[in-house]
């Protein structure tokens, strides 16, 4: 198994993802809670929501209102969109937060975001150093995509029987790009380094774990000083002209006095 893991790490290194098993297994996450958020236009604005590790946030609204739930890469109404979870009336959208950090959401229907201020930032508490709780979702919740800087290392931790597979789209019928781990019975953890900007789609390939347990997520890697930034152009040196020297003074010969 050790040889197989080393081979997987070498393959992943060639494509911007590097996997390595940790010597220390993180503690299991606490039991998650479900927090209900009434999702409507709110002229006073939504305050920052703070959740515990591995909690689920349920966006809910009535059958007479039409809204959607869109995750954005940063707070605001005009920032790039990461994922649309649902649009329609009578919404009940459970979102699972597997990784520490801030997550931004908005409603994209009509002018609900800029005028109705229907946007919220969810702060998920840290559960250790960059640990992602990789679990079978029995509550029908969907993993919220993760946004990290290039060069980040994420430790996938699980207690069941899972793996981590990179695929070409965030769907259970996607094509496998490569296996980042083998199927392993937990407790187990695997650290993956993300060294290429862009969207990296990951899922668990154990039967029914994606289709039923919703074990599929996307890691959005943004350029950072570590990697992904275009090389800086060297500033050409500025050549200053030498200072002008004053011309030598010309002395006139003394006048001769008339005799």
Structure overview:
With 259 residues, the chain is mainly beta. The protein has 2 domains: 1-29 and 128-223, Sandwich (Immunoglobulin-like), CATH 2.60.40.420; 30-126, Cupredoxins -  blue copper proteins (Immunoglobulin-like, Sandwich), CATH 2.60.40. Helices cover 5% and strands 37% of the residues. It has 1 helix and 20 strands. It has one helix spanning 2-13; strands at residues 17-21, 34-38, 49-51, 56-60, 66-72, 81-89, 92-96, 101-106, 119-124, 131-133, 142-143, 146-149, 153-158, 161-162, 165-167, 176-179, 184-185, 188-194, 198-203, 216-222. The strands form 5 sheets. Strands 3-9-8-5-6 form a 5-stranded mixed sheet, with no helix packed on it. The protein has a 5-stranded mixed sheet with strand order 12-20-19-15-16. Strands 1-18-13-10 form a 4-stranded mixed sheet. The longest helix is centred in the N-terminal third of the chain and has 12 residues, at 2-13. The chain is elongated, with a radius of gyration of 29 Å. Mean pLDDT is 85; it is low at 1-14.
């Amino acid at each position: 198994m050790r040889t197989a893991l080393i081979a997987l790490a070498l393959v992943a290194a060639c494509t911007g993802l590097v996997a390595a098993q940790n010597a220390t297994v993180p503690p299991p996450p606490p039991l998650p809670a479900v927090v209900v958020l009434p999702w409507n236009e709110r002229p006073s604005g939504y305050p920052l929501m703070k959740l515990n590790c591995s909690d689920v946030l349920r966006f809910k609204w009535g059958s007479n209102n039409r809204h959607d739930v869109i995750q954005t890469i940063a707070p605001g109404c005009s920032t790039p969109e990461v994922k649309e979870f649902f649009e329609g009336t009578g919404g009940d959208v459970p979102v699972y937060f597997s990784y520490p950090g801030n997550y931004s959401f908005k409603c994209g229907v009509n002018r609900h975001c800029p005028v109705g201020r229907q946007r919220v930032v969810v702060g998920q508490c840290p559960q250790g150093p960059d640990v992602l709780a990789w679990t079978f979702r029995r509550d029908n919740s969907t993993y919220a995509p993760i946004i990290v800087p290039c060069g980040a290392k994420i430790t996938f931790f699980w207690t069941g029987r899972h793996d981590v597979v990179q695929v070409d789209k965030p769907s259970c019928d996607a094509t496998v790009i490569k296996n980042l781990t083998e199927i392993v019975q937990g407790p187990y953890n695997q650290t993956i380094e993300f060294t290429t900007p862009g969207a990296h789609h990951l899922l668990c390939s154990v039967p029914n774990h994606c289709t039923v347990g919703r074990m599929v997520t996307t890691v959005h890697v943004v350029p950072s000083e570590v990697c992904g930034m275009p090389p800086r152009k060297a500033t050409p040196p500025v050549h200053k002209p030498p200072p002008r020297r004053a011309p030598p003074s010309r002395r006139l010969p003394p006048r001769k006095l008339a005799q």
